[in-house]
Amino acid sequence: MSELSYGGELLTRTLAGTSDDPGPLTHMTVIGSRSAEVTEWPDWVHPAVRDAFVERGVRRPWRHQTEAASLAASSRHVCVCTGTASGKSLAYQLPVLTTFADDHNSTALYLSPTKALGTDQLRSVAQLIAGRPEFAHLQPCSYDGDTDSELRQWARMHSRWIFTNPDMLQIGITSTHPRWRAFFAKLRYIVVDECHHYRGVFGSHTALVLQRTLRIARKYGADPVVIGASATVSNPAQALSRLIGEDVVAVTEDASPHGERTVAMWEPGFLDEVTGENDAPVRRSAGSEAARLLADFVIEGARTLCFVRSRRGVEVTAVRARQILADAAPDLVDRVAAYRAGYLADDRRRLEQAISDGELLGVATTNALELGVDISGLDAVVVAGYPGTVASFWQQAGRAGRRGEGSIVVMIARDDPLDTYLVHHPEALLERAVEATVTDPTNPFVLGPHMLCAATEFPLTEEEVAAFSAGEVVAELTAAGKLKRRKAGWYAAPGLDPHGDIDIRGGIGGQVLIVDATTSRLLGTVDTARAMTSVYPGAVYLHQGESFVVDELDLDDGLALTHPEEPDWTTSAREVSDVTIIETHDRRTFGPLTVASVSVEVTNQVVGYLRKALSGEILDSVPLDLPEHTLTTRAVMYTLTQEAMIDAGIALDKFPGALHAAEHAAIGMLGLVATCDRWDIGGLSTAMHPGTGLPTVFVYDGFPGGAGFADRGYEAFTDWISATDEAVSSCGCTSGCPSCVQSPKCGNGNEPLDKEHAIKLLRLIGRLQR
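The structure assignment produced for this chain is given below.
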């Protein structure tokens, strides 16, 4: 059987079980195979390192591996940016291990955004150097949240190569750097794996942690080289350069081989006799479709990975797939499992081994298995919902076809404007250049806490403050008494311990503890702002496969009390917002249309929540009385004159519904031009905003100071709105649904919404910009 027929026939057999007309498949294409380009081993590679790789089956390296490794060995910061399964690990292992073989006192630091990836890379290195006397001194070791205190102490004293993540680097290493003095003094390399993952607020925090780490190492006399490894992103050198604040060279020509791959786009059909909010039609869920595909592929003997957006979705998809198999192929039930973050370390290791060994044929997972865990020989990948970026889609798709054989990738659309747009405009995904990562380390809400950390590590000099672009922030901290100016620089005020106050994953405000009140067990934590949208009274909260319902949220004491319960519904918060314009940074005017980049103050209040059956049907709406929350952030804003809207056929009484529907659709589509999804952003529309005196729409970042998403929307406004118009216009519903203008988090119950006049509004904006 040819490679193409393998993917095509596998999908044909799966489609045989559907009865939709015209069917769920909207597009199918084939990506051709690619041959390898190899080179000889560079002369500078230590013979013991070369022999170790040859014994592991790497007879000669691929060209991009040699190029990146040689740049790092010559003391250049480098980012190797090639596809999944292209051997990026070898590119950093060559120079690091050669240095260790030549200098037994040198050290290295490896960073990954997930524990699973760090553990996998540590295992790979341990296997590579096993039994080789040249590396007996190395003792590579994990240093993360799963590492017990005794092993952490041992690692600090004896390991030459530490595998960790930005969170632990912040809280457990830079905060106690005097204990790590010997390690920092000999630090030769810092490896930043999957560096495309560091975007938005998380990326901005990680950038400052990395820059402070380089500062500490240099204070102790070292000058480490940074090696970045990334999936394909736009401007990889610039992306890593923003993270470390220094010049970087990129290696982007992928010389690895790959088998032929079939890519299919899949749109679930509408459910019969089920309606959602305001009687809108409801599609079959992406999770249900994914579960069926996962089960069908496993029955066909295809090793399959199914990516699902949420932890809950992963659990539900795995359960449904197992239920299907229980009826159709009972002997395969135990060969399907779920994998996600939040599991205990031993459970994760066991699952990773079962996946790698082929004991499991099908696995539903979050992006925990997107980021680099070495899983080979997969025949199929199912992507249940667009993962938010083109880079992430190709990273997930790249898990298929590692044996050089034919493979299949299926992307299933969620009931969401962007997903619906992409399955009907596949070129916007399959032929589009990958995004540039968006970070802003100068965001004062991010920068200020890191300057406090830096000042507790070593006094801040004027040159360093200038290098961090932190003059204004440092002045404010000094005025507040948190920094003290002395002759040698700025010192942290006595008694401050700022490292633990930073949530580098983007938390806002203090922490709320989530507790099972029946056992007093701590389930997890969430920052204060997000607590009001995730653990409000009545919310369904999932933890490691267990379901809880929240009984009480006490923000004063930082507690959310829950009890175990498995209801057959889900919950989603409803918010209302008010937006005040603080400052206008830039604007463009097109006659009656003005588009602006602004700083705003957003006042949010959760006013209730929806209970939704697992089928998607709305059960009821429950009111809540929670306090307001204020957020200072960045927004993209547009205004139109009343006259222009009326001339376009939008009557005055249609303004609210048209603006509201256009706002919802634009929020859903922003991910097409920015590395975000709708849960990272918010919006407001009004027929007459007091700050502008005009019909106005805001789309804003959901993070203090902004995360760069709204700024990107401003830059790409024309393309963004054009795609929004196309998404709404081409949706098959008559008056609006979650695939076009309805929002799952609308505080007004998705009222008023006017799809017809939203299309007129979006087309008016398009015409005015031509």
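Interim note for the steering committee: The CA atoms of residues 441 and 447 lie 6 Å apart. The longest strand covers residues 569-590.
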